[in-house]
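Support reply, case 0932

Customer input (verbatim):
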Amino acid sequence: MYGVVLWSDRSHEHAVIWCEDHGDLAFHVPDHVSSGCVSLAHGDVIAFELDPEASFRRICNVRLVDCDAYPVLARSLKEIAETLRNIPADDHTRALTGGGRSNVVPFAARTPVRRSQRVRRSAH
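Our regenerated output:
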């Protein structure tokens, strides 16, 4: 599965992931067995598996796909939630789509980052 890191705590190697299946958020919580060799930061696109043994959506076998691909995604989601909080529920689709009938939430286009501008992250 693929996802985008919405929040991370690099000192503890914890992260919250928005998953491509649009299900519940997933969590990266390292353990002594599979402690990651990938350092995650908000905005990163990652590939991973869900841990079938966990009692929550815990990810494992993490692989970094694109570093800092969506750095403002978490902020965009928060702004949309605040917008929706201030309008009646019947008007949500109209507010998100500019009056259309689509239920797809628009996000700003990605700004390409040159390889030389990326911060190199190393594993712990």
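We compared this against your earlier run and they match. Two observations from our side: Strands lie at 2-9, 14-19, 26-28, 45-50, 59-66. The longest helix spans residues 73-85. Please reopen the case if you see a mismatch on your end.
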